[in-house]
């Protein structure tokens, strides 16, 4: 299994952006296979929708760094690891701006970018970027079309209901050909149908350890992946070419054993070949986060 980790982007680690390059370089030395960013804009004081089924926003979300800048720093500090977004909230960005940012990171990393896109869940974040949240699904579909045009044609032109790219010469294309793989985060039925129809892969999530009374996320994963691949086949696509990268979200009380066990089980029980671990609740400083990286890799690969 390929094992990656979230870059120091949120919470206490975000207060030390000077450590991003050091974290990335050392994580690669320790044997990490990928490094990841997310996309948080703000933490509402009185949220309309809380995080992960709660009615609050975790305090760790009150500090967040720009995902593209963090990826660029990691790209220049590493040589081997893949660099991923899980996820960029695509409807927040005009596709031309998003395409330029993603292309830059892919070129900086010599083709190591994995593009993970989603729609987000916070009404206040949509209000802050002045995009109607009700349009997020349609805007994501248009963004996928516009990105494909930007990356594979020259001149580029795209005209949709919400976004337009006038006919333009765009000479810089990604190092990955024809373009970086595009994964989608999704849970709702309509979003899962989009995954099956359009994505190179799916981005499932497992919270570790599961809360008391909640189902075992790893036990459910094999069935979920089988269902997605069946949907991919119904769309006339090759399910064997469809990928999945699992995000492990450890709770604040998760142990190294909890995380390593989840990684091993995901590979053995669900056939997951690539996963990454978010350390947002566990890493209080860069050195502690790197120690966790080392211990998780050692424990998981010794199993």
UniProtKB/TrEMBL annotation:
It comes from the Bacteria. This is Luciferase-like domain-containing protein. One of its GO terms (molecular function) is alkanesulfonate monooxygenase activity. Keywords: Flavoprotein, FMN, Monooxygenase, Oxidoreductase. One of its GO terms (biological process) is alkanesulfonate catabolic process. Residues 16-263 form the Luciferase-like domain. The keyword DNA damage does not apply.
């Amino acid at each position: 299994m390929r094992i990656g980790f979230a870059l120091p982007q949120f919470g206490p680690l975000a207060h030390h952006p000077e450590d991003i390059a050091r974290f990335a370089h050392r994580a690669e030395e320790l044997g990490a296979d990928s490094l990841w960013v997310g996309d948080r804009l703000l933490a509402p004081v009185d949220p309309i929708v809380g995080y992960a089924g709660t009615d609050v926003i975790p305090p760790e979300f009150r500090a967040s760094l720009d995902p593209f800048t963090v990826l660029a720093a990691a790209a220049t500090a590493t040589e081997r690891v893949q660099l991923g977004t899980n996820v960029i909230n695509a409807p927040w960005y005009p596709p031309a701006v998003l395409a330029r940012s993603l292309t830059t990171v892919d070129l900086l990393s010599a083709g190591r970018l994995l593009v993970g896109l989603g729609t987000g869940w916070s009404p206040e974040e949509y209000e802050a970027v002045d995009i109607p949240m009700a349009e997020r699904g349609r805007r994501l579909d248009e963004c996928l079309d516009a990105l494909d045009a930007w990356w594979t044609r020259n001149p580029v032109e795209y005209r949709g209901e919400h976004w337009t790219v006038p006919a333009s010469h765009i000479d810089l294309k990604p190092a990955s050909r024809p373009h970086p793989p595009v994964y989608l985060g999704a849970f709702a039925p309509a979003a899962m149908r989009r995954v099956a129809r359009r994505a190179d892969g799916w981005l499932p999530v497992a919270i570790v350890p599961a809360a008391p009374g909640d189902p075992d996320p790893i036990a459910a994963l094999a069935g979920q992946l089988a269902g997605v691949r069946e949907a991919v086949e119904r769309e006339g696509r090759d399910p064997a070419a469809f990928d999945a990268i699992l995000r492990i979200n450890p709770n604040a009380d998760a142990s190294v054993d909890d995380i390593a066990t989840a990684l091993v089980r995901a590979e053995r029980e669900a056939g997951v070949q690539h996963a990454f671990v978010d350390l947002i609740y566990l890493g209080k400083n860069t050195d502690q986060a790197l120690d966790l990286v080392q211990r998780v890799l050692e424990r998981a690969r010794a199993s």
